Structures are given as structure tokens and as C-alpha cells.
Amino acid sequence: MDQNTSFDPIQSSGQQDDRSKVPPPPPSYDQQVGVRSMASDMQSIQQSGGESPQSQILSAQDVFKSPQQDQSQFIPPATPMSAVPPPPMPDIPGMMPQAPDQQQVVMEPPVSHGSPLKTILTIFGIVIVAAGVGYGGYYLVNSLNSGPAVPAVPAFSPNPALSEEPTPAASTPSPLSHSSLIPNPAKSESIPLTMIALGDFKTALSAVSARESMLVGTVKDLSFVTEAGVPVSSEQFLTAFFPSAAANISFLFEQDFTAWLYGDRVGGNKFGVVFGVKQGISAEQLTASLSLLEGNTSDISNMFVSSVSAAGTSGFEGAPIDGIPVRYLVLSSKNQQVFEYASVQIGGKMHVIITTSYYQMQHILNLLNAQPVATTPTV
After folding, report:
1. Are residues 245 and 349 in the same domain?
2. Which of 115-129, 212-226, 241-255, 337-351 shows the lowest mean pLDDT across its residues?
3. What CA–CA distance (Å, rounded) separates 261 from 18?
4. How many structural domains compose the chain?
5. Residues 325 and 204 placed together within one structural domain of the fold
């Protein structure tokens, strides 16, 4: 074989297959052969300016260089487990292995983790669900913690000229009701008054006493009312009968009081009253205040139905009646016209009794089952 003759391993192999299929002996290392490869063809085309590629002239020693010698210069990339290995190339005698930079590298296909659109939609759905859950939780907690809506109250700036403390509403007093202390009176009568004045009281008492023929020792219960039917209070009565002392003694008594006519054994019908003492008034305070009744004899004469002299025969004196101390002033011994008053206990409560005769005081004390108080008027 000529040294410049090109040697095509594939063509030689085909001819041998057609004949005896026995390969010829390889050329010696001193011979030169023409070899074509993709790299040599591309280089030949570039150098010739596009002409037909020419075979590369190599020595047989370079062609049949041991593959193990090239492996020290080329380390193929590791093939991933998931990558499909390329089919093995047939071992063709006389064919030079490709250079390291010309070997086919199998690239690992990217692992698909799903469509990008699907990923975006999934993230968007998760965000919407999280937002809905958060809003629902906030609404539930807020509705549980919040009470009914309270309207906003506008700020109010008090007028400095006015008092900051509200004026309490005037309390309406309950209407006065009358309850007599006389148990089982012989008679009872309600006396209307046109005016709450001493003259109206005296006129009414004289009229009632004149038409009543009362038995000795009997009691007729009297109640004074206005034209409107409202009972007269103790303060109104004391102001009319005791104008000099009323301002200093009326606060001691409750508003309701009991009045009567008594059939006396001497001098005909006599007038008297009893007042209930308010809670909180001590016996000593009561005694000191009642002493004011003794300062004006003209007021004392107002208690008598018939006319009497304002001046008594003597001054006030004290004497017990059935064990109860009584203060008295004699205005007429002939007709038994005697002004008397006493502080007593009736039903566990202090009262003040005023009468216009000795027998009348004695009878009323027994009728009301009166008892002496701890401190009594000075005798």
C-alpha cells in the first residue's frame, strides 16, 4: 500500500465482509493514513473557504493510539441516574476515537415541577383562602367582644355661670291623712274651715258645742279639714292657737293630731288635743320647749270654748295625776277652767296632751293608757 493512499476503514471492512470477512493486517506505525472526522471536515471547509473537505493525514500511530491514554486527559461528566444513557457506539477497528472536545455529552433534562401557571394559581388560591380565614376570624372575635353600639355623646361644656350640681327636684309631700288616737269615741265629726285662722276655729268649736248635749265623761272626736277636704296639720293649728310659741314648738310634733270635745262634770263641754312627738326628740328637749307655752297667758285662753280671763289666779304649778306629772294654770276655779299639759308615753311613743280641765286630763290619761316618760316637766 502506498503511504499517500487514503485508508477508509469502513470501506475496507465492507469489502472484507463481501469476501472472506477476515480483516487485513493493520498498517505499521510508520505509515500515514488519511482520516476524516467531523472536526477535520469542519476545519478543512474553514481553511479552503467552502470547498470539499479533505482527509486529514495522520500517522498510524496517532490513529491507533490507545484509548486509555486519552482518558487521562478527559473526564466525562457524571451521568445523572435519571438520565437515559446513550446507546453504546460500535467498536469499529481502525476508527479513531473522537477527541475529548468532540465527544457527545448527554445533558440532563430539567426536572419538571409542574406548569408555572399552575404554580401561580395555587399560590394565589392559598393567599385568597388565608385572607378569607383571617377576615372571618377577625369578624367573629370582634362581634363577640363588642357590645351594642353606643351613640357618641357630644362634648358638653358647662356654663361657668351656672352651678355644676343639678338642682334636685322638689319632692311632693304625701297627702296628710288623719288617724284619731281616741279609742271608740261616743261621736265623731269632721269640721270644715273656710280659712285656717283662730276665728274660724273658735266659731266652729262654739257651734259644735252649742248643739251637742254631751253626757258627762263622754268624748266626741273632732277633725278639722280645709274646704278641699285636706286635714289641718299640727303646725297650722299651733300657729292659730299659740302664735307666740308656735315657731319654737311646732317642729317637735308630727303633722297629724287628735282633737275632741269632753262632757265635763263642771262647766259643760271642754276642748282638748294630743300631739305625737317626732322620732329623735329627747325628753329633755321636749320639756325645755314646752316651757315656752307658759310665757304668754293670752295664747292659753284661746283653748277655751267659752270666754275666760287671760290672767290666771296664780302662776303655773305642777302636780301629779294618777302618777303622771302635769303642769297647770287655773283661769277660773268656779267653772273648772284650768289649762293643763303633760308629756306622756302612749304605746311606747312620746305624746303631749293639752286639756282645759282637771277631770278632762284625768279621763284622757286613763282612756289613752298614758304612762309617764323618763324625764317629765319640772313640778
Report:
1. yes
2. 115-129
3. 174
4. 2
5. yes
Q: Share the mean pLDDT of the chain.
A: 77
Q: What is the pLDDT of residue 134?
A: 76
DSSP per residue, 21-75:
--PPPPPPTT-EEEE--HHHHHHHHHHHTS----PEEEEHHHHT--HHHHHTT--
pTM, whole model, 2 decimals? Answer: 0.55
Residue 228 lies in a domain: yes
Residues 201 and 89 in one domain: no
Q: Is residue 78 part of a domain?
A: yes
> 194 and 325 in one domain?
yes
Angle at 357 between CA 352 and CA 362, to 5 degrees: 65
- The 10 Å Cβ neighbour count of residue 232 is 22
- In 3D space, the residue among 241, 260, 248 whose CA is nearest the CA of residue 301 turns out to be 241
* Cα 341 off chain centre by: 60
Residue 181 lies in a domain: no
**Domain boundary pick from 51, 76, 102:** 102
Mutual angle of helices 198-211 and 234-241, in 10-degree steps: 90
What is the residue range of 203's domain? 187-372
pLDDT average, residue stretch 265-280: 95
- Distance, C-alpha 180 to centroid of its chain: 51
| Whether residue 105 has pLDDT greater than 50 | no
Domain boundary among 38, 67, 102: 102
Write down the residue that cell numbers 282645759 correspond to: 356
Q: What is the pLDDT of residue 26?
A: 62
What's the Cα-to-Cα distance from 63 to each of 53, 92, 104, rounded to whole Å? 19, 13, 20
Determine, yes or no, domain membership for 215.
Answer: yes
How high is the pLDDT of residue 224?
97
Cα-based torsion angle of the residue sequence 195, 198, 201, 202 in order, rounded to the nearest 10 degrees:
-140
Same domain, yes or no: 93 and 209: no
The share of the chain scoring above pLDDT 70, in percent, equals 61
The type of residue at 5 is: T
pLDDT digits (tens, 9 = 90+) for 127-136: 888 877 777 7
Q: Helix, strand or coil for residue 193?
A: strand
